[in-house]
Amino acid sequence: MLKVNLEKNLEHYKLDVSFTVEEELVILFGRSGSGKTTLLNMLAGLLKPEQGEIGLGGRMLYQAGKVDLPPQQRNVGYVFQDYALFPHVTVEKNIYYGIKSKQLPNSGDHLKRLIDIVGINHLLSKYPGEISGGEKQRVALVRALAYRPDLLLMDEPFSALDEKNRLQCHEEILRLKQEWQIPILLVTHDHDEASKLGDSILYMHDGKITQQA
């Protein structure tokens, strides 16, 4: 379970949100600039709130003035909108980045299945600068799922994919959600995608959750 109660003053408004996510997929929906990515960055530990707390599976990830775990200790998978791949290493090394050697025996079959489903076998020896935007997005998705996170954050992860690959990724996300039973937060601007994937939808406007459906 993910428990969130956060405040942060931004340039044009104050972000102030409070919600709970069970082992389900929750959509963050709202116009650009409404605070969706800022919220994901705070959950991942990339941006510090000013007040509040973040609890995940009985662990406190952040509590104002007391606890602020760094990203590498949160076990949070994050698919960034701009991919955030390391340009100086191959796709394969990007995927395996962050997986400890003791985890590899248990990760092998899982990673092979992900790589097959997302269709990036032919990209493993290439560098990020040698592949397209859609291919980078698929690599980023596999990397975020590689080490079995306790929480998965996705910022418009399928926007650059063609219809076939997008539908395949939809099915894999739904299957993984059922198998892993972890909270998933996904940002999308696609109503059909939100309706298909989301157990619930949080509508955001100027840093506030205005509606839950």
Automatic annotation (TrEMBL):
Q: Please report the stretch or stretches of sequence annotated as the ABC transporter domain.
A: 1-213
InterPro entries from the entry? AAA+_ATPase, ABC_SmlMolc_Importer, ABC_transporter-like_ATP-bd, ABC_transporter-like_CS, P-loop_NTPase
Q: A Gene Ontology MF term for this entry?
A: ATP hydrolysis activity
Q: What are the UniProt keywords, alphabetically?
A: ATP-binding, Nucleotide-binding, Transport
Question: Matching PROSITE patterns, A to Z?
Answer: ABC_TRANSPORTER_1, ABC_TRANSPORTER_2
The keyword Transport is assigned to this record? yes
Q: Which PANTHER family match?
A: SPERMIDINE/PUTRESCINE IMPORT ATP-BINDING PROTEIN POTA, SPERMIDINE_PUTRESCINE IMPORT ATP-BINDING PROTEIN POTA
Please give the name of this protein: Molybdate transport system ATP-binding protein
